[in-house]
Design a protein that fits this description.
411 residues; alpha+beta; Heat Shock Protein 90; 5-stranded mixed beta sheet; two-stranded antiparallel sheet; 14 helices
């Protein structure tokens, strides 16, 4: 993967975060001025560091300098917007993941050390803002937790690959025709990227909408700003889940609370309409104005986003995605149907295997990792729910999600 792409993603997220902070109207004039200068500096630095001549001249120092400059700008933005408790704090955690994926373990460790030292300096410089010492210390420790989780996931995957390679050297044995599919190694980094891809896309959309209205001299719509904040909160929740929990707990079981499923589905449907209304129709129908369920709301949103993404990804232009929500006994029922490529009988049988993509999905040319359905089932089962799939080749798919209605207990 190109290091330049990492830099562009990092700078883009920093600019979006600053734009969101300024749009909320909570910045005093001096703060706004300093953040505007930082945004201009970020654009300038990105342009200079992305030049081929610059990278050739710096040679081995290009990537470390890129990381250091980006980190310095992000820490500066934190210092101007509340210190270690700033709403821009999740950007540091995202940068650690991007460094690991695009530049490798050494770059991630280098950035972790710099981030912790930088946060300590920011905490010291802003200690007069009333932040409790314990909170500041916890924020300074977060980058270490995220990096440790990435290292642990990579180490487990490496050991599994070594074990599989040793097993392959042994004399092959016949496999019965009825044998289950081979075990697939779980890649923690890939799962993190899979989860954050959807909210990052929505972040870009709402930031563009806000910027467009500002450019036209129109007032910023409160729902756009609110949705920007919601997407940043979701990214932080996802990184916290992946960064601190063991793999078995990353499905977020045991954090059940009461929330309105209709409200969540309506917000998601509106976001996806804004993103994809130019090529297909997205319809949402609720049998009642409210449907209270008992589950982890962040985990359920992960699941629903995976299902929305799959339905839209594999539905050709001019098609339709329909979402229906209602109640069936003691369960809430969500049905997501599409007019997409569909699946064969064999593909349906393996649809919930990790990293499996059916023939029609591969033939569609759409990029994918085969994780969406597998993660969705894992999440739902951990939250007392179920998932059912039906599909026909060329006629689309229908996924039914069942969750416990609030007050009914887990099934």
């Amino acid at each position: 993967m190109s290091p330049a792409l990492r830099g562009l993603a990092s700078t883009g997220l920093l600019l979006l975060g600053i734009l969101l902070f300024l749009s909320l109207g909570g910045a005093a004039p001096p703060q706004a001025a300093r953040l505007s200068v930082l945004a201009a500096a970020a654009l300038t630095a990105r342009g200079v560091l992305a030049l081929p001549a610059t990278r050739r001249g710096l040679q081995l120092f290009a990537d470390p300098l890129d990381l250091a400059v980006g980190l310095g700008l992000t820490l500066g933005a934190l210092a101007c917007s509340g210190g270690v408790t700033s709403e821009l704090f999740p950007l540091l955690l995202v940068d650690l993941v991007l460094a690991r994926v695009f530049l490798g373990a050494a770059a991630s460790r280098f950035l972790t050390v710099g981030t912790v030292l930088g946060l300590a300096l920011v905490a010291g410089a802003t200690r007069g803002n009333g932040t409790p010492l314990l909170v500041a210390a916890a924020r300074c420790a977060w980058p270490v937790a995220v990096t440790a989780a990435l290292e642990l996931g990579a180490g487990v995957a490496s050991r599994d690959r070594d074990r599989d390679r040793d097993r392959d050297r042994e004399e092959p044995r016949p496999v019965p025709a009825s044998a289950p599919p081979a075990r697939v190694d779980r890649d923690g980094v890939q799962e993190i990227l899979h989860d954050v891809r959807s909210p990052l896309t929505a972040l870009r959309l709402y930031a563009e909408l806000v910027a467009d209205r500002v450019r036209k001299g129109q007032p910023v719509l409160p729902e756009h700003v609110q949705n920007l904040g919601s997407e940043i909160d979701l990214i932080q929740s996802l990184l916290e889940t992946h960064g601190t929990a063991p793999r078995a707990a990353r499905v977020q079981a045991g954090r059940s609370e009461r929330f309105d499923l209709v409200k969540l589905l309506g917000a998601l449907a509106n976001s996806y309409r804004l993103l994809h209304s130019d090529r297909l129709r997205i319809e949402f129908i609720a049998e009642s104005p409210e449907l209270q369920v008992s589950a982890d709301p962040v985990a359920v949103q992960r699941c629903l986003r995976n299902l929305f993404d799959n339905a839209i990804k594999y539905t050709p232009d001019g098609g339709q995605v329909r979402v229906r929500a209602g109640r069936s006994g003691g369960e809430a029922r969500v049905v997501i149907s599409d007019t997409g490529v569909g699946m064969s009988e064999m593909d349906r049988q393996r649809a919930f295997d990790f990293a499996y993509r059916g023939q029609a999905a591969r033939a569609s040319g759409a990029a994918g990792s085969g994780l969406g359905l597998a993660l969705s089932r894992e999440i739902l089962e951990a939250n007392g729910g179920r998932i059912v799939l039906s599909s026909e080749p060329g006629r689309g798919s229908e996924v039914t999600v069942l969750l416990p209605v609030a007050g009914q207990g887990r099934s």
